[in-house]
Structures are given as structure tokens and as C-alpha cells.
Amino acid sequence: MRIKQLFKTISAFAIAAILFTPFTSCGDDDNNGGEDPVKKQTPKSAKAQYKIECSQTMLDLLDITITYIDKGQKMTEQISKLSTTITAEGPSLPATFGFKIHTAVTANADFSKVGPYNFKYGTNTTGFEVFDAEGKAITGLAVQSSITYAENSWSSEDKVRKGYDNKDIISVGFEVGTDGKATDKTISWD
Hints:
alpha+beta, five-stranded antiparallel beta sheet, four-stranded antiparallel beta sheet, about 15% helix, disordered N terminus
């Protein structure tokens, strides 16, 4: 009887040992010629996209400019369409991205139409893309978005001038670090 009990105990331990032993393989079936199947991508560069939208009334009465950072340099362009999209590059990391929108009442602004003057604008910095040394996008890095939207109805020329003549109406800045992650950054536009 004792021998049967001893045999059952040893069998139980043997079965448990087999069930909890991890299976290993001596072959390398998934390796495609010896290359490491999991290759870590190292962030090397980044891109951002700035989108600006404004109402026709704003285009009629204001000079609107965007100053932005592309390839480490400040660039300025006139906004003359209802929607403008600009792609900026950071060829190496860390890279600074950002933009500011400046408005001024045009010299020939026609305020003969009595208000209200409806101003609508929106800005959007879409998610950044980060790339490795081979130019391949690295998923999941530096995804950040900044969105601003405003809608105002101004009753007179005086109020338009007070609100938009020679004003920076928005300023946004980010830095993509060597790790490929974006953080807010204050930019000196002077």
C-alpha cells in the first residue's frame, strides 16, 4: 500500500514538473537569415504640420501673417486663403516647432458696411511625426496636438482695431527631444 502511495506522489510531481517546464526551441525559424526580428528605431528627425483657418471677413479687413519654425529657422508668410497648411521639418533632434499668428488692420480696410464684423479663426498643430535614420516613421512618438478656435462679433471699426490691429492673436511652441517626445516650449519671436 505504501508503495502505491509513494508511486502516486512521485507521479504527481513528475506531471507537475512537465506541465510547468517552459518549452524551448533550438531552431531559429522566425529569424529570416539571422537578422534581429525586433529592431529598435532611434529617433533622428521630426515633422509638424500647422493648419490655419479664418473667415472671409478677417481676410477682407486684416493683414494676417504666420511666423513659424521650419528647419530651425523662423519663416513668415502672408495668409491669403480661408485655409492654409504648412509642413515644417526638424532635420535633427532636438527640434523646435511652433508658430504665431499676427494681425493688423489693412491700410485699405473697408468699414463702410456697418457691423457686426464676424471673425472666426482656428489653428491646429497636428500630431508630430518622428523618423528614424532611414526616414521611417516611428509610431507612438511625439503625438501632440494644439487646437485653438475663436469666434467674435465686433460691432464697430473701433472694436476691430482694438482687438486685432498689430496683435499676436496666438503663439504656440513645442520641442521634440532626442527621445522623440514632444513638450511645450516658449518661443521668443522677436
